[in-house]
Amino acid sequence: MAGGRDELKLLGAWASPFVIRVKLALSFKGLSYENVEEEDLYYNKSELLLKSNPVHKMVPVLLHNGKPVCESLLIVQYIDEAFSADGHSLLPAEPYECAMARFWATYIDDKFFASAFQASRAKTEEEKDEALKQTFMAVETLEEAFKECSKGKPFFGGDSVGYLDIVLGGHIPLVYVGEVRYGIKLFDGTRSPLLEAWMERFAALDTAKAILPEVDSLIEHCKAKRARAAAMDATASN
């Protein structure tokens, strides 16, 4: 655990996959922190958030003894390095493997998540189909990445959860939402059997179960956001 002089405060939003991954990192490292929920990231951002992340004005932000660290991938890396004596290391110790883990983490956000998010926001069937095509291509690539990184073991990190498990693990709730709400199964036994087994294995961990939000709650949250956005568009057009 962090020493008494270490104060950790997380500015976040419970449904954000990027906030979820930071919570996962903190929990797998066994660190205590204060969770500060940003209630309205669209119209009423807190003064603390605006002060802590004046460039992007977005969550997550980790405050360590008052000093802000922004961007989820950087926060997870920071947590692992700043608290190297707490729990097992998340990033590989070998420099090349560490570089590869950072590479695949960026791929997860820039390719897998970006295309899946685009599919969820597509305005036409053609746009949706193209975005899903890109998403499934990214899944196939990540299937090979898992095979390479895990070396036949249960997790990207080998026998235990590592950096990439946490990075991709933050997106698990949205993968389940896509399956339940839209009937789209991103990880399946045909296209990506290793990732499907990994996802079930990761989500079953006690630490993950305590952090990952319930699918039904996320679906209701997504519906509320869509309704609010539609109302805003209608107001703006009048």
From TrEMBL:
- The top EC class, named as a word, is transferase
Recorded hits in Gene3D superfamilies, A to Z, give: 1.20.1050.10, Glutaredoxin
Asked if the Swiss-Prot or TrEMBL record annotates the protein with the keyword Membrane, the reply is: no
Pfam family of the protein (one): GST_C
**EC code:** 2.5.1.18
Residue span, GST N-terminal domain: 6-87
Q: For this UniProt record, give its keywords in alphabetical order, as a comma-separated list.
A: Transferase
Q: What GO MF annotations does this protein's record show?
A: glutathione transferase activity
The GST C-terminal domain covers 94-231
Q: Which InterPro entries match?
A: Glutathione-S-Trfase_C-like, Glutathione-S-Trfase_C_sf, Glutathione_S-Trfase, Glutathione_S-Trfase_N, GST_C, GST_C_Tau, Omega/Tau-like, Thioredoxin-like_sf
The domain of life for this entry's organism is: Eukaryota
Q: Does the keyword rRNA-binding apply?
A: no
Reaction(s) catalysed by this chain, per the record, are:
RX + glutathione = an S-substituted glutathione + a halide anion + H(+)
Q: Which residues cross the membrane?
A: none
Family stated for the protein in its record: Belongs to the GST superfamily. Tau family.
**Under which name does UniProt file this protein?**
glutathione transferase
Please give the organism: Urochloa decumbens
